[in-house]
Specification:
About 20% of the residues are buried. The chain is mainly alpha-helical and about 150 residues long. The longest helix is centred in the middle third of the chain and has 24 residues. The N and C termini lie far apart (about 40 Å).
Length: about 150
């Protein structure tokens, strides 16, 4: 079952269960996917987005909510922060398991070896290989500096 079907199945189940919070989050996910479909049609890229793009959308939505929750906590709005966290929980159901720090380090080493990267100029190759293989499984904002450190050290 592809990502789109999984989201739609969960949406239908949330409607049956009358789970309002879950339903609204699933509708937001669907809307984001449809927006990306429309954007892809406008550039002539075909009918719609695939699972890799859906994973990227979900990762972006999770990151946005984490930042919002942090901002709400700093502002003393714990109720809104909790709402953001519950949305994160629903979104993460569709994301693959996040890699541990050791697994990320191993993946970086493998990507460096595969691409033959030996300097900071090859960072794009390494990041491209990682994004192609591990989309949705690691935070590339944190992985970038790790790749940079490894390439500078070699």
């Amino acid at each position: 079952m592809d990502m789109r079907e999984r989201v739609n199945t969960a949406l239908k189940q949330a409607m049956k269960d009358k789970a309002a919070g879950r339903l609204s989050t699933l509708r937001l996910i669907n809307a984001a996917i449809k927006d990306k479909d429309i954007e892809a049609r406008g550039t002539g890229e075909g009918a719609g987005v695939g699972d890799a793009e859906v994973l990227a959308i979900l990762g972006k939505m999770t990151k946005q909510r984490q930042e919002s929750a942090r901002a709400y906590e700093e502002g003393g709005r714990l109720d809104l922060a909790e709402q953001e966290r519950s949305e994160i929980g629903v979104i993460e159901e569709f994301l693959p398991r996040q890699l541990t720090e050791a697994e990320v380090a191993k993946a970086i080493d493998a990507a460096i070896a595969e691409s033959g990267a030996d300097s900071i100029r090859d960072m794009g190759k390494v990041m491209g290989a990682l994004k192609g293989r591990y989309t949705g499984q690691m935070d590339f904002g944190m992985v970038g500096p790790m790749v940079k450190d490894r390439l500078c050290a070699s």
